[in-house]
Amino acid sequence: QVTKTSGNPQAEMYQLGMHVTGNDSYSVTLDAKASSNGSLKVQLSNQEGTLIYGTKTLAVTTALTNLRSE
Description:
Elements: E1 28-32, E2 38-45, E3 52-60, E4 65-69
Antiparallel strand pairs: 1-4, 2-3
């Protein structure tokens, strides 16, 4: 769970320990809601964050919603 209540509107959450390979497809599924409608960037990268495999921006609303990015 990530809760951001004040200050900079950006919050970060990491899922470490996943082994990814170059020619496979991956999906990310999560539940999200926000205090006001906005967007959430999902990014798959190497552990150092220096190699970005893919980035998607998902719409987030005030209702708890199951989001999926492929």
